Protein backbone atom coordinates (compact mmCIF):
# COMPACT_ATOMS: atom_id res chain seq x y z
CA UNK A 1 0.00 0.00 0.00
CA UNK A 2 1.14 3.54 -0.72
CA UNK A 3 1.35 5.49 2.56
CA UNK A 4 -1.03 8.42 2.60
CA UNK A 5 0.58 11.82 2.73
CA UNK A 6 0.12 13.50 6.07
CA UNK A 7 1.58 16.93 5.32
CA UNK A 8 -0.30 19.29 3.03
CA UNK A 9 1.35 20.00 -0.36
CA UNK A 10 3.97 22.73 -0.02
CA UNK A 11 4.88 24.61 -3.23
CA UNK A 12 8.03 25.95 -1.57
CA UNK A 13 9.23 22.48 -0.75
CA UNK A 14 8.32 21.24 -4.22
CA UNK A 15 10.33 23.93 -6.03
CA UNK A 16 13.27 23.47 -3.67
CA UNK A 17 13.35 19.76 -4.52
CA UNK A 18 13.06 20.51 -8.22
CA UNK A 19 15.90 23.02 -8.02
CA UNK A 20 18.12 20.63 -6.12
CA UNK A 21 17.53 17.85 -8.62
CA UNK A 22 18.68 19.94 -11.64
CA UNK A 23 22.35 18.90 -11.36
CA UNK A 24 21.26 15.28 -11.11
CA UNK A 25 19.04 15.60 -14.20
CA UNK A 26 21.91 17.15 -16.16
CA UNK A 27 24.14 14.30 -15.05
CA UNK A 28 21.54 11.76 -16.20
CA UNK A 29 21.11 13.33 -19.63
CA UNK A 30 24.87 13.31 -20.20
CA UNK A 31 25.02 9.67 -19.18
CA UNK A 32 22.58 8.63 -21.90
CA UNK A 33 24.61 10.56 -24.48
CA UNK A 34 27.95 9.00 -23.63
CA UNK A 35 26.62 5.45 -23.49
CA UNK A 36 25.41 5.66 -27.10
CA UNK A 37 28.95 6.12 -28.43
CA UNK A 38 31.81 3.65 -28.48
CA UNK A 39 34.41 6.38 -28.83
CA UNK A 40 35.45 6.01 -25.20
CA UNK A 41 35.84 2.27 -25.46
CA UNK A 42 37.81 2.22 -28.70
CA UNK A 43 40.36 4.92 -29.33
CA UNK A 44 40.60 5.63 -33.05
CA UNK A 45 36.91 5.09 -33.79
CA UNK A 46 34.37 7.87 -33.33
CA UNK A 47 30.62 7.63 -33.75
CA UNK A 48 29.22 10.76 -35.35
CA UNK A 49 26.77 12.57 -33.08
CA UNK A 50 23.26 13.60 -33.99
CA UNK A 51 21.42 10.29 -34.28
CA UNK A 52 18.55 10.52 -31.81
CA UNK A 53 17.15 7.09 -32.64
CA UNK A 54 17.81 4.06 -34.82
CA UNK A 55 14.98 5.23 -37.05
CA UNK A 56 16.55 8.66 -37.76
CA UNK A 57 19.76 6.84 -38.63
CA UNK A 58 17.98 4.43 -41.02
CA UNK A 59 16.05 7.33 -42.62
CA UNK A 60 19.33 9.16 -43.31
CA UNK A 61 20.91 6.04 -44.82
CA UNK A 62 17.84 5.48 -46.99
CA UNK A 63 18.11 9.04 -48.27
CA UNK A 64 21.37 8.11 -49.98
CA UNK A 65 20.38 4.59 -51.02
CA UNK A 66 17.04 5.69 -52.49
CA UNK A 67 18.33 8.86 -54.19
CA UNK A 68 17.00 8.32 -57.75
CA UNK A 69 19.83 10.28 -59.39
CA UNK A 70 22.50 8.30 -57.53
CA UNK A 71 20.78 4.98 -58.29
CA UNK A 72 20.66 5.89 -61.98
CA UNK A 73 24.38 6.77 -62.00
CA UNK A 74 25.23 3.53 -60.15
CA UNK A 75 23.32 1.47 -62.70
CA UNK A 76 24.59 3.23 -65.81
CA UNK A 77 27.73 5.41 -65.87
CA UNK A 78 29.28 3.74 -62.78
CA UNK A 79 28.23 0.17 -63.52
CA UNK A 80 31.06 -1.21 -65.72
CA UNK A 81 33.71 1.08 -64.26
CA UNK A 82 33.07 -0.12 -60.71
CA UNK A 83 32.73 -3.75 -61.73
CA UNK A 84 36.15 -3.57 -63.42
CA UNK A 85 37.79 -2.15 -60.29
CA UNK A 86 36.13 -4.72 -58.01
CA UNK A 87 37.05 -7.51 -60.43
CA UNK A 88 40.72 -6.64 -60.11
CA UNK A 89 40.44 -6.56 -56.26
CA UNK A 90 38.74 -9.97 -56.25
CA UNK A 91 41.22 -11.42 -58.78
CA UNK A 92 44.05 -10.49 -56.40
CA UNK A 93 42.22 -12.21 -53.51
CA UNK A 94 41.73 -15.32 -55.66
CA UNK A 95 45.44 -15.45 -56.50
CA UNK A 96 46.14 -15.35 -52.76
CA UNK A 97 43.59 -18.17 -52.22
CA UNK A 98 41.54 -15.94 -49.92
CA UNK A 99 38.61 -16.28 -52.32
CA UNK A 100 37.71 -19.38 -54.38
CA UNK A 101 35.23 -20.23 -57.14
CA UNK A 102 33.36 -22.46 -54.70
CA UNK A 103 33.25 -19.82 -51.90
CA UNK A 104 29.82 -18.75 -50.75
CA UNK A 105 30.24 -14.97 -50.81
CA UNK A 106 28.39 -11.99 -49.36
CA UNK A 107 28.75 -8.31 -50.18
CA UNK A 108 27.52 -6.06 -47.34
CA UNK A 109 25.98 -2.72 -48.31
CA UNK A 110 26.01 -3.73 -51.94
CA UNK A 111 23.81 -0.89 -53.30
CA UNK A 112 22.83 -1.96 -56.84
CA UNK A 113 25.19 -4.95 -56.82
CA UNK A 114 28.41 -4.08 -58.68
CA UNK A 115 30.52 -6.05 -56.19
CA UNK A 116 28.22 -9.07 -56.51
CA UNK A 117 28.43 -8.91 -60.31
CA UNK A 118 32.25 -8.66 -60.04
CA UNK A 119 32.32 -11.72 -57.74
CA UNK A 120 30.29 -13.67 -60.30
CA UNK A 121 32.56 -12.54 -63.14
CA UNK A 122 35.69 -13.82 -61.38
CA UNK A 123 33.96 -17.20 -61.04
CA UNK A 124 32.37 -17.01 -57.56
CA UNK A 125 28.89 -17.97 -58.75
CA UNK A 126 27.39 -18.40 -55.28
CA UNK A 127 27.37 -14.69 -54.38
CA UNK A 128 24.74 -12.38 -52.96
CA UNK A 129 24.56 -8.82 -51.65
CA UNK A 130 22.52 -7.14 -48.91
CA UNK A 131 21.41 -3.54 -48.54
CA UNK A 132 18.52 -1.66 -46.93
CA UNK A 133 16.96 -1.44 -50.38
CA UNK A 134 16.92 -4.63 -52.48
CA UNK A 135 18.17 -4.60 -56.08
CA UNK A 136 17.14 -7.90 -57.63
CA UNK A 137 18.54 -10.31 -58.53
CA UNK A 138 21.97 -9.47 -57.08
CA UNK A 139 21.03 -7.69 -53.83
CA UNK A 140 18.43 -8.70 -51.26
CA UNK A 141 17.05 -6.59 -48.44
CA UNK A 142 19.07 -6.77 -45.23
CA UNK A 143 20.39 -4.62 -42.40
CA UNK A 144 24.10 -5.16 -41.69
CA UNK A 145 23.42 -4.63 -37.97
CA UNK A 146 21.20 -7.71 -38.10
CA UNK A 147 22.09 -9.87 -41.10
CA UNK A 148 19.20 -11.99 -42.48
CA UNK A 149 21.32 -15.17 -42.48
CA UNK A 150 21.98 -18.16 -40.23
CA UNK A 151 25.24 -18.61 -38.35
CA UNK A 152 28.16 -20.00 -40.40
CA UNK A 153 26.64 -19.29 -43.81
CA UNK A 154 29.53 -17.71 -45.77
CA UNK A 155 33.16 -18.40 -46.68
CA UNK A 156 33.82 -14.84 -47.78
CA UNK A 157 32.37 -11.43 -46.89
CA UNK A 158 33.29 -8.11 -48.42
CA UNK A 159 32.26 -4.61 -47.43
CA UNK A 160 33.19 -1.04 -48.19
CA UNK A 161 30.48 0.52 -45.99
CA UNK A 162 31.96 0.06 -42.51
CA UNK A 163 31.84 3.86 -42.10
CA UNK A 164 28.04 3.68 -42.35
CA UNK A 165 27.74 1.52 -39.24
CA UNK A 166 26.18 3.24 -36.25
CA UNK A 167 27.06 0.22 -34.11
CA UNK A 168 30.46 -0.99 -35.39
CA UNK A 169 30.58 -3.80 -32.81
CA UNK A 170 27.31 -5.18 -34.23
CA UNK A 171 28.50 -4.73 -37.82
CA UNK A 172 31.60 -6.86 -37.11
CA UNK A 173 29.77 -9.20 -34.71
CA UNK A 174 27.29 -10.08 -37.45
CA UNK A 175 30.13 -10.78 -39.90
CA UNK A 176 31.77 -13.16 -37.43
CA UNK A 177 28.42 -14.82 -36.70
CA UNK A 178 27.60 -15.53 -40.36
CA UNK A 179 31.17 -16.43 -41.44
CA UNK A 180 32.30 -20.04 -41.11
CA UNK A 181 35.49 -20.91 -39.24
CA UNK A 182 38.28 -20.31 -41.76
CA UNK A 183 36.09 -17.80 -43.61
CA UNK A 184 37.60 -14.55 -44.83
CA UNK A 185 36.36 -10.99 -44.37
CA UNK A 186 37.74 -8.18 -46.53
CA UNK A 187 36.98 -4.57 -45.62
CA UNK A 188 37.77 -1.44 -47.57
CA UNK A 189 37.95 1.50 -45.18
CA UNK A 190 39.08 5.11 -45.10
CA UNK A 191 41.80 5.65 -42.52
CA UNK A 192 43.70 8.71 -43.67
CA UNK A 193 40.78 10.57 -45.21
CA UNK A 194 37.23 11.39 -44.14
CA UNK A 195 34.35 9.67 -45.89
CA UNK A 196 31.00 11.12 -46.91
CA UNK A 197 28.26 12.99 -45.07
CA UNK A 198 26.22 9.80 -44.71
CA UNK A 199 28.96 8.13 -42.69
CA UNK A 200 28.00 7.27 -39.13
CA UNK A 201 31.54 6.77 -37.83
CA UNK A 202 35.09 7.94 -38.46
CA UNK A 203 38.06 5.58 -38.27
CA UNK A 204 41.50 6.99 -37.47
CA UNK A 205 43.54 3.77 -37.44
CA UNK A 206 43.01 0.05 -38.06
CA UNK A 207 43.51 -0.72 -34.36
CA UNK A 208 39.76 -0.56 -33.52
CA UNK A 209 39.07 -3.17 -36.24
CA UNK A 210 41.64 -5.48 -34.65
CA UNK A 211 39.71 -5.21 -31.39
CA UNK A 212 36.23 -5.56 -32.93
CA UNK A 213 37.18 -8.78 -34.78
CA UNK A 214 37.20 -10.86 -31.61
CA UNK A 215 37.25 -14.34 -33.16
CA UNK A 216 39.46 -13.59 -36.17
CA UNK A 217 43.10 -13.07 -36.99
CA UNK A 218 44.52 -10.30 -39.12
CA UNK A 219 45.74 -11.76 -42.44
CA UNK A 220 47.06 -8.63 -44.12
CA UNK A 221 46.64 -4.91 -44.79
CA UNK A 222 47.42 -3.05 -47.98
CA UNK A 223 46.82 0.36 -49.48
CA UNK A 224 44.20 0.46 -52.22
CA UNK A 225 42.46 3.10 -54.29
CA UNK A 226 38.85 2.08 -53.86
CA UNK A 227 36.38 4.87 -54.50
CA UNK A 228 37.54 7.16 -51.71
CA UNK A 229 38.61 4.30 -49.48
CA UNK A 230 42.34 3.84 -48.98
CA UNK A 231 42.93 0.65 -46.99
CA UNK A 232 42.12 -3.02 -47.57
CA UNK A 233 42.16 -5.14 -44.43
CA UNK A 234 41.70 -8.92 -44.39
CA UNK A 235 40.66 -11.06 -41.41
CA UNK A 236 40.18 -14.81 -41.12
CA UNK A 237 37.84 -16.36 -38.57
CA UNK A 238 39.76 -18.76 -36.35
CA UNK A 239 37.19 -20.05 -33.86
C1 LIG B 1 36.93 -20.36 -61.73
O1 LIG B 1 35.98 -19.73 -62.55
C2 LIG B 1 36.55 -19.06 -63.65
C3 LIG B 1 35.47 -18.24 -64.32
O2 LIG B 1 34.30 -19.02 -64.53
C4 LIG B 1 37.22 -20.06 -64.55
O3 LIG B 1 37.79 -19.41 -65.67
C5 LIG B 1 38.28 -20.80 -63.77
O4 LIG B 1 38.87 -21.81 -64.55
C6 LIG B 1 37.72 -21.40 -62.51
N1 LIG B 1 38.82 -21.87 -61.68
C7 LIG B 1 38.83 -23.07 -61.16
C8 LIG B 1 40.02 -23.40 -60.30
O5 LIG B 1 37.94 -23.89 -61.32
TrEMBL record:
Domain Methyltransferase type, first and last residues per copy: 106-187
Lineage top rank: taxon: Eukaryota
Matching InterPro entries: Methyltransf_11 (IPR013216), SAM-dependent_MTases_sf (IPR029063)
Pfam families per record: Methyltransf_11
Signal peptide (UniProt feature, chain positions): 1-34
Entry annotated with the keyword Signal: yes
PANTHER family (UniProt xref): F21J9.14 (PTHR45085)
Protein name: Methyltransferase type 11 domain-containing protein
Amino acid sequence: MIPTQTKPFSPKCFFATLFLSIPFLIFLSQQTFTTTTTSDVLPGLKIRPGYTSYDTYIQKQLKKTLNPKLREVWKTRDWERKINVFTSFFDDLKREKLLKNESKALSIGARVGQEVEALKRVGVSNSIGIDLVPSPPLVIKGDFHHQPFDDDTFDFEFSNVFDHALYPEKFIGEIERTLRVGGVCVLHVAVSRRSDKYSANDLYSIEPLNKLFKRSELVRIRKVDGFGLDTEIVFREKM
